[in-house]
Amino acid sequence: MTAAPQRQPGVMIAMFDIPEALDEEFNAWYDEEHIPEKVGRVPGFLRARRYKALDGRPNYLAVYELEDISVIEDSAYLANYRSATSTTERMKAKAKTFYRNVYVQIGDFHGIPLPGEANDA
After folding, report:
1. Selection from 74, 78, 82, 93 nearest residue 18 by Cα
2. Which is it for the CA torsion 71, 74, 77, 78, positive or negative?
3. Beta-strand (E) ranges in 1-121?
């Protein structure tokens, strides 16, 4: 009997350098259209978190938690990626820079819980 392949959790990151004049439109598109296209629609995309740089460039970062890094090779994700909306194409074109990369998890470390956080122990 062949053993099931070991799950490889990871993250996909997307970094955008968006001109300040597009901040409002970019954030509305990302929150209302782009993230819902992935999280909840593509199996294996567990969660998304977005960040804005305090200083430096690129000024936006999105981190998508993946159940397994193979998700990005799945037909559901590939179809979703290839069927980008016109707004998605426009936002990518307006970005000064755009990076996208996938990382496999190599460690999982936990600190001391903050007051009010559940303790997994």
Report:
1. 93
2. positive
3. 10-17, 45-52, 60-66, 97-104
- Per-residue confidence in pLDDT tens, the chain, 121 aa: 666 678 899 999 999 999 999 999 999 999 999 999 899 889 999 999 999 999 999 999 999 999 999 999 999 899 988 888 899 888 888 899 999 999 999 988 888 888 887 655 4
Q: What is the Rg, in whole angstroms, of the alpha carbon atoms belonging to the chain?
A: 17
Cα separation, 69 vs 63, whole angstroms: 13
Q: Name residue 92's amino acid.
A: K
Specify the pairing of strand 10-17 against strand 97-104. antiparallel
